Amino acid sequence: MRAIVQRVNHASLSVDGRHVSSIGTGFVVLVGFNNEDDAAKVDYVVDRIVNMRIFRDGNGKLNLSLKDVGGAVMCVSNFTLYGDPASGRRPDFSHSAHYDVAKPLYDHALARFREHLGKVAEGAFGEHMHIDASLDGPVTMVVEK
């Protein structure tokens, strides 16, 4: 599993002009899966993200976690995270998990984020989505297992 975590002031997601979800302060988390991923890898990555200390404390140091600041997560599936642009002009997506592997893992990630945080904003799995976000910092991390 690979996740791109972007710290945001706010974010909104839509599909075909229809509002799907939004968050205030928190993380937009783009998640991608390969065919070797399993629930244990998802658990590890979600735990790392929720407890990652990349919000500023009173002294200006990156020392607070998502939980510490009461932040939210928008979790968005993104098969292109396993795209390989090394050969040719069109990226090779053969390392991205197939729907029957990726969808249950995505649902598991959503459930784990909910266990940690309560409510989680979702993307629309398999859909063409538009995300409007105000990046904070910008602070962007790659988390994978």
Describe the protein in words.
The chain has 145 residues and is an alpha/beta fold. It has one domain: 3-Layer(bba) Sandwich (D-tyrosyl-trna(Tyr) Deacylase, Chain: A), CATH 3.50.80. Helices cover 25% and strands 38% of the residues. The strands form two sheets. Strands 1, 2, 3, 6, 7 and 8 form a six-stranded mixed sheet that branches. Strands 4-5 form a two-stranded antiparallel sheet. β6, α3 and β7 form a beta-alpha-beta unit. α1 runs parallel beside α3. The longest helix has 19 residues. The protein starts with a strand and ends with a strand. The mean pLDDT is 96.
Q: Supply the number of structural domains.
A: 1
Order of helices and strands: EEEHEEHEHEE
> Would you state the CATH class?
Alpha Beta
What is the count of β-strands?
8
Relative helix content: 10-25%
What is the helix tally? 3
Using only CA atoms, what is the Rg?
15 Å
Strand content of the residues, in percent? 35-45%
Per CATH, the superfamily is D-tyrosyl-tRNA(Tyr) deacylase
- Helix-strand category: alpha/beta
CATH fold category name: D-tyrosyl-trna(Tyr) Deacylase, Chain: A
* Oligomer designation: single chain
Write the layout of secondary structure elements.
Layout (H helix, E strand, L loop, with lengths): L1 E14 L2 E6 L2 E7 L6 H13 L3 E2 L5 E3 L1 H4 L2 E6 L21 H19 L3 E2 L7 E15 L1
Parallel strand pairs: 3-6, 6-7
Antiparallel strand pairs: 1-2, 1-3, 1-8, 4-5
Q: Concise description?
A:
By secondary structure, the protein is α/β, with parallel strands linked by helices. The protein has a single domain, classed as D-tyrosyl-trna(Tyr) Deacylase, Chain: A (3-Layer(bba) Sandwich). Helices cover 25% and strands 38% of the residues.
